[in-house]
Each structure stands twice: as C-alpha cells, then as structure tokens.
C-alpha cells in the first residue's frame, strides 16, 4: 500500500533532521515542510496539514526548550502525536454488544466496497460469537441483492431482501423487524450507493435511517478517493449521523491519505480497514500501532529509558552493545523470543516496539502467538551457527531453506514466513540502532 511510502517519507524527514548537528528553527521548518509535502502528496487535506504544522511548531518551542532537552525526540513525539490526533477523533464509536440487538447501517458511494464490507463486518462478528444478519436495502443497483445473498450464503449468515419490492425503506424496516424477532444481535443494513453524491441518494439514506433507527451508521470509503475524501465524507455526515468509518482497498495502490481526511470530516474513528476482496481480508484499525508502523518508528522515546529501567544492570551493556552494532542476527531474535516467552524484562522492552511483540503477541491471541514463536524457534534450532550469526538474509538460498524445513519438520513456506518475520524485526532493530547512534553523536544520554 502506498501509505507505506508516506510513512517512509516522514521517517526520512525525521532522520534527516536527526543528522543535523544543531536543531534550530531552520532545521525544524525544513523537516516540517518535508513532512507536509509528503502528506499533501498522499492526498491529506491541505487544511489538516497546515494545522498540523502549526500545532507542532507551537508544541516544540525551540526557544523555550532548555539546553539538554532532547529536541529530536520531542519533535518526533510531536509528529507522532499529531498524526494520531488526525486519525483519532477523541471519542470511540458505538460498539455492538453481544445478546443485545444493534442495528448498524452502511452508507457510501457505489463501488466503494460497501456490500462486501457489510459481509466482512458481519463475518468478523460472527466469528467472535455474535449472531449477525444482513438486510439488503439497495434497490437501486440491479444485482445488489444477489451479491449480498451470495456473500451471506458463503459465510452462513442469514439475509433479507427482495427482487420485487422497490422501496428501500420498506425492505429495511421489514428486514430489521424480521431479525429482531429472531433475536439476531447484530442487524446490518446495506443501503444504495450511487455514482456520485446526489440529492436522491441522501434523501433515501435519511429515510432508511429514520425508519430503522440504527445504533451506528458506518461510512465506507474507498482509499483511492484522494483529495475528494474530505468533501465526500462531510457530505455524508451532514445527511446522516455517521458514527464510524471503514476504509476499503488499503491493499491497492491508493495513496490512502484520504483516510486521514475522512476522520476529520466525520469526526468519527476509522474502525476497520479492508485489505482485499476476501472475507478475511479485514482488520481492526488501531490508531497508535498504525501510526507507529507507518513511521516505522515504534516508541523510541521510551525505548532507551526502558532498557535502563527494566533490564538488569549486568545485562544492559551487552544489549546496548548489540544495539550499537546494529546487527540483528537470528540468534539475537532467538534470544528475544526466549525472553518474550518468559515475559522477562527484555520481553517488556521489546513489547514497546510495534512490529515486535505487539504484533507477534496481539492481545487476546497470546496462545496462537506463543505457538508461532515456538514454531519459529524450532526452525531456528535446525540452523547452523553460521546461519544463526548471519545478518544477511541472502545467505538463505533454496537449499538452506529446504534443509531447515526438513530438519524441523515444517514446510518451506513456514521457513519463508519466519525469514520474513526476521527481516521485519531486523529493520525495526536497525532503526532503533540509528536512533541510539544519533543520540550518542549528539552527546545525549537517555
Ligand atoms: P459497493 O458498490 O460499494 O457495494 O461495492 P462492492 O462491495 O460491490 O465492491 C466493489 C468491488 O470492490 C468488488 O469487486 C469488491 O470485491 C472490491 N472490494 C471491496 N473491498 C475491497 C478491499 O478491501 N480490497 C480490494 N482489493 N477490493 C475490494
């Protein structure tokens, strides 16, 4: 996804700033201009970018920062916070409760992925124990009901719709009533989308909303919408009480910055993102981990402090030495996995790094994650010393991969997956090392 490019550009701007010997107004302005340019190129609305720049300048008042303050970190943190603020309207959206009927209505332009997303949303909740049901109130698009029916059948979710009835309000009400009687606890209403914002679409949406009294209205937006995102999202919000946003097609080549704008326009959080055409390609959206990942930065501001705080004194020099060398070997990964499994102190340090244990061990999935880590360790047990101490993934040619797979009784695919994980963590580690080195160059300690 192209949002990664945005993250890369911002991370580079911050890194360039870190390389400057003295951080003064000029360096800060250059860095902020670079970040603003990247955001604008990714289709974030101009006003949001301008406000962000002004906010950071206000927060990072270089004149008032006493000497010895780590300006680079304060700036990094301010950029991070502002990006989070853009994506977080500050209030959570309504969340349906199991066993209590909730009606959730979906709105959005035709082609945004609304119908697909309705089913993904239903399927996601079904897997977690809800009893969802789908109502097709899209009487405008021929084939809409068939599409919903097909998706619903595949995922074994009850559905309601009609080929004959042309009044979407009537269908929506009948569908909701039917499923309420059946004690379904999550009733999802799909509404018509049109090619562009037109009065008739908004009027119909308003009527369906008034008649079904949804607990939550979700605005579905295609990530490729670009600079039009803000106006479009705002137009929907002005017609109905949008309470949450889902951005689709994040797997594509869209710039994705429109997502930031949509949050601002609707003052509603992004709750999920669509990452493919399949039912499972649907992810919960969390602002902080997303921004951390976007910037490839993790919680660096706290990272070094945490090492000093939680790693036993006798282990600190070794870990810091490894960090300063910047070389992240598979052996080091193995040791960190051992720590994560023990949840020892270094495990805590690693848990601060998005992309490491927070992803390896997402909350609620600890068991699966532990199994995954153990699987990786079994495969590493089949590696030679040279392999474990190498920092070069290219060493792992086909025959080595096959040997490791055979030796550990896993598939080649499993080994490749582990190598991908290694590359991801190595990247995180090298960024941490770069930060640590920059600190040393500038004579700062944590
Ligand atoms: P609607 O007109 O808004 O109801 O849109 P549809 O649900 O019919 O989706 C339009 C197209 O987008 C279909 O081909 C979907 O398979 C596709 N689609 C929906 N969500 C995603 C997504 O997250 N990623 C990708 N790649 N395609 C998606």
UniProtKB/TrEMBL annotation:
Q: What is its main location?
A: cytoplasm
Q: Name one GO biological process term.
A: SRP-dependent cotranslational protein targeting to membrane, translocation
Q: What is its EC number?
A: 3.6.5.4
Q: Which GO terms describe its cellular component?
A: cytosol; endoplasmic reticulum; signal recognition particle, endoplasmic reticulum targeting
Q: Catalyses which reaction?
A: GTP + H2O = GDP + phosphate + H(+)
Q: Localized where? A: Cytoplasm; Endoplasmic reticulum
Question: What are the protein's UniProt keywords?
Answer: Cytoplasm, Endoplasmic reticulum, GTP-binding, Hydrolase, Lectin, Nucleotide-binding, Ribonucleoprotein, RNA-binding, Signal recognition particle
Instruction: Give the molecular function GO annotations.
Output: 7S RNA binding; carbohydrate binding; endoplasmic reticulum signal peptide binding; GTP binding; GTPase activity
Q: How does it assemble?
A: Component of a signal recognition particle (SRP) complex that consists of a 7SL RNA molecule of 300 nucleotides and six protein subunits: SRP72, SRP68, SRP54, SRP19, SRP14 and SRP9.
Q: Please describe what this protein does.
A: Component of the signal recognition particle (SRP) complex, a ribonucleoprotein complex that mediates the cotranslational targeting of secretory and membrane proteins to the endoplasmic reticulum (ER). As part of the SRP complex, associates with the SRP receptor (SR) component SRPRA to target secretory proteins to the endoplasmic reticulum membrane. Binds to the signal sequence of presecretory proteins when they emerge from the ribosomes. Displays basal GTPase activity, and stimulates reciprocal GTPase activation of the SR subunit SRPRA.
Q: Which family does it belong to?
A: Belongs to the GTP-binding SRP family. SRP54 subfamily.
UniProt-recorded name of the protein: signal-recognition-particle GTPase
Q: Which residues of the full protein are shown?
A: 1 to 446 of 805
